[in-house]
Specification:
- It is built from three helices and no strands.
- The protein is elongated and about 50 Å long.
- The longest helix is centred in the N-terminal third of the chain and has 23 residues.
- By secondary structure, the chain is mostly helical.
- It has one domain.
């Protein structure tokens, strides 16, 4: 397998799993949102034109989402699609 083929396979694996990780991490008051942001940032260092696939389930949090859950806006990942 060539280096190019390896990179294509790794890229495919990342793209096929990152959307699930984004859904899992969105809105959690844990390390997960920052880990996702970091993973995407690292990936974009290699593939600067790459953007995460839009996910209509990820939305801007409402004020009541922040109050009732004790979350910070940074716990939500809506901004990664901009």
């Amino acid at each position: 397998m060539t280096d190019k083929e390896k990179i294509e396979k790794l890229s495919y694996a990342f793209e096929e799993t990152i959307w699930m990780a984004i859904r899992y991490a969105n809105g959690r008051s844990t390390y997960a949102p920052s880990a996702i942001r970091d993973a995407i940032g690292q990936y974009q260092m290699v593939f600067p034109d790459w953007k995460p696939r839009y996910d209509m389930t990820i939305r801007v949090p409402k004020k009541e989402d922040l109050k009732k859950c004790g979350n910070f806006e940074s716990d939500f990942l809506h901004d990664i699609f901009n």
